[in-house]
Design brief:
With 383 residues, this protein is α/β, with parallel strands linked by helices. Helices cover 36% and strands 21% of the residues. It has 2 domains: 248 residues, pyruvate-formate lyase- activating enzyme (Alpha-Beta Horseshoe), CATH 3.80.30; 99 residues, no CATH class. Strand 2, helix 4 and strand 3 form a beta-alpha-beta unit.
C-alpha cells in the first residue's frame, strides 16, 4: 500500500465541511506521474505487494490519466484505487484507460444527493453528473463507492428522503456498487466550523487547548437527524445486495416520512446523456493494444470489384473483427501504429480529423460509424 500526497478537493480547495484550512490539506503539491510510478516500482521490489491505495482526498483526473499511461507503458502489473471527486473529466474513455492500467475501484463523495445542498457544500458537482461519471466507471469495470451524508446544516426531512430516493435509483440502475451513510459532524477547521452562522447552526464551543476538532452544535431547523440513521443504513445494506428496490421508502422507517418528490426516472434520464459526440479537438488519441491482424478480400458490387480489409484485434477480453474498405483500413492501420501507447509523440483528435480529410471525406461519418464505435470500445481512446 502506498500513501500518496494528501490534499482536500485538490485543485479547487473547496468543501464546506472539510478541514481545508489545515496546512497538511490546503498545501497540496501534485507529484509527477513518472516519479509516482518509480516509487510504486520500488515498493514492489521491496515488498512484493502490487496493490496501491492513493489517499488524496480527491485525486486529480489529469494525474490519474498520466499515471495510468505510465503504468501501461512500463508493463507494470498492479491494482490500485483512489478517492475522487465526481468531475466531468472522468469521461468514458478515461475510465477505460484507468481500468486498463489496473484501477479497480474509486470512492467519492456524493454526500447529500441534493443539488441545492451540493451547491451549498461547494461540491462542484450535481447528482446527474455523479450518475454519469459512476456509469462511465462502472461500465469500464471500476467499482464505485459513494460517501453519503445526512443531517447537513439546513437539510430538511424532505431532502433527506429525496436523497435516499436518489441513492435507491443509483443502485437499482447498477451505477453504484457500494456506499456508506455518515451523519454530519462539525469540525473546527472547516468553513462551516469557522463561519457557523452562515450555515444556520449554533456551535457549543469549549475551551480546548489540545486536539480541538469535533464541535457539538445545535441545528436551527430543530430536526432530530439521528432518527434517520437506522432506516438509511438498513435500506442501503439491502440496496448493496440488490434487493429492496420495490419497497416503499416508508417501510425503512418506523415513523412517518413524506413521500419523495424525485421522479422515478430521474437517474435513468440523467444516464441518457451521451458524451461521445463532444470530443475536444485537443484530446489525445491513444491505442491501448498491439496492431491488428489484417486480411484482404474483394467484393463484387454492380459488376465492379471493391477491395476490403478485415482487421482482427486481440484484446484481453475477446477478439474483435471489423471490416472496412481497403483505403480506410490502410489509413487506420497507420493511425493505430502512430497512436500506440508506447509512442512518445502524441496525436490529437484535430490532427486525426485533418489527416483523414486530406485523404477522404466526412471524418465525422467515419469516426461515429458502427465499426469505429466498436474499435473505440475496444481501446481507441480520446483522452
Amino acid at each position: 500500500m502506498e500513501q500518496a500526497h494528501h490534499g482536500a478537493w485538490l485543485l479547487l480547495g473547496k468543501c464546506a465541511f472539510c478541514d481545508i484550512s489545515l496546512d497538511y490539506i490546503k498545501i497540496y503539491e501534485p507529484i509527477a506521474a513518472k516519479l509516482l510510478a518509480d516509487r510504486m516500482a520500488e515498493m514492489i521490489a521491496q515488498t512484493g505487494e502490487r496493490g496501491f491505495h492513493f489517499v488524496d482526498e480527491a485525486a486529480p483526473p489529469a494525474l490519474m490519466q498520466a499515471l495510468a499511461l505510465e503504468i501501461i507503458r512500463r508493463g507494470m502489473t498492479v491494482t490500485w484505487w483512489a478517492n475522487i471527486r465526481f468531475e466531468k473529466s472522468f469521461t468514458k474513455d478515461l475510465c477505460q484507460l484507468l481500468a486498463a492500467s489496473g484501477c479497480i475501484a474509486v470512492s467519492g463523495g456524493l454526500e447529500v444527493a441534493s443539488d441545492r445542498l451540493l451547491e451549498l457544500i461547494q461540491k462542484g458537482v450535481t447528482v446527474s453528473q455523479v450518475a454519469q461519471v459512476s456509469r462511465n466507471l462502472t461500465e469500464a469495470g471500476v467499482m464505485v463507492h459513494a460517501y453519503l451524508m445526512y443531517g447537513y446544516p439546513t437539510q430538511t426531512v424532505q431532502e433527506t428522503i429525496d436523497s435516499l430516493e436518489m441513492v435507491r435509483q443509483l443502485f437499482e440502475l447498477g451505477v453504484l456498487q457500494s456506499g456508506f451513510w455518515h451523519q454530519f459532524a462539525l469540525t473546527a477547521h472547516s468553513p462551516i466550523g469557522i463561519n457557523p452562522s452562515d450555515y444556520g447552526i449554533l456551535p457549543d464551543l469549549k475551551e480546548i487547548s489540545f486536539a480541538n476538532n469535533d464541535i457539538q452544535f445545535e441545528d436551527k431547523t430543530g430536526i432530530d437527524h439521528n432518527q434517520f440513521s437506522f432506516g438509511l443504513k438498513k435500506s442501503l445494506f439491502n440496496f448493496m445486495h440488490g434487493i429492496g428496490f420495490d419497497m416503499p421508502l416508508q417501510d425503512w422507517f418506523d415513523f412517518p416520512i413524506p413521500n419523495t418528490k424525485i421522479q422515478p426516472s430521474f437517474i435513468e434520464n440523467a444516464l441518457m446523456f451521451n458524451e461521445s459526440f463532444g470530443t475536444k479537438p485537443r484530446a489525445k488519441i491513444v491505442w491501448l493494444h498491439g496492431l491488428p491482424q489484417v486480411s484482404y478480400f474483394t467484393k463484387t458490387k454492380k459488376k465492379k470489384e471493391l477491395a476490403f480489409a478485415q482487421l482482427t484485434i486481440h484484446s484481453k477480453i475477446s477478439p474483435l473483427a471489423i471490416t472496412l474498405p481497403k483505403p480506410q483500413a490502410d489509413w487506420l492501420l497507420q493511425v493505430l501504429e502512430k497512436t500506440q501507447i508506447q509512442q512518445k509523440e502524441t496525436t490529437t483528435f484535430a490532427q486525426l480529423e485533418a489527416d483523414y480529410e486530406s485523404h477522404f471525406e466526412d471524418f465525422e461519418l467515419f469516426w461515429y460509424s458502427q465499426e469505429m464505435e466498436a474499435l473505440r470500445e475496444a481501446g481507441l481512446l480520446a483522452l
